[in-house]
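hey
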């Protein structure tokens, strides 16, 4: 991890698992005084290493019953086509993650929908309507034994 020392790495590890931990408890866990720990966290935030804090949600309790990873290949490999696709994905609430990747396709998406029917509608009417689409591959998430996304 860049130029971080062991203490800062430990702070990041703890905060990555428990973002709402009190500064007092965090300081105890990483072996610092509360004031030194707070200074470290503030420095990590100021340097842009910590970019924010998020709530981890339960998709099922939010009515999300279908999660899939979708690979997307574009027929046109231009900067304009990619920018247009990225704007479309930014506007789609079903797309929780959009990654430009290397390999045989350009994008990897994490898509969340109410159910299979809702995903099918998104797949055909939204993704399928993109003019430079070449291919889509959908991989349905059946379970997530490890998920450390925040």
């Amino acid at each position: 991890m860049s130029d971080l020392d062991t203490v800062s790495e430990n702070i990041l590890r703890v905060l990555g698992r428990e973002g709402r931990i009190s500064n007092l408890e965090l300081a105890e866990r990483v072996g610092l005084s509360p004031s030194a720990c707070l200074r470290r966290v503030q420095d990590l935030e100021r340097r842009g290493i910590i970019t924010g804090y998020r709530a981890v949600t339960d998709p099922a309790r939010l009515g999300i019953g279908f999660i899939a990873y979708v690979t997307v290949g574009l027929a046109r490999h231009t900067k304009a086509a990619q920018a247009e696709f990225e704007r479309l994905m930014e506007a789609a609430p079903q797309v929780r993650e959009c990654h430009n990747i290397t390999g045989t396709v350009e994008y990897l998406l994490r898509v969340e929908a109410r159910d299979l029917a809702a995903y099918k509608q998104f797949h055909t009417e939204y993704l399928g309507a993109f003019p430079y689409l070449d291919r889509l591959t959908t991989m349905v998430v059946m379970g997530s034994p490890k998920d450390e996304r925040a």
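The beta strands are 66-74, 95-100, 107-113, 133-140. The chain has two domains: 6-46, 59-140.
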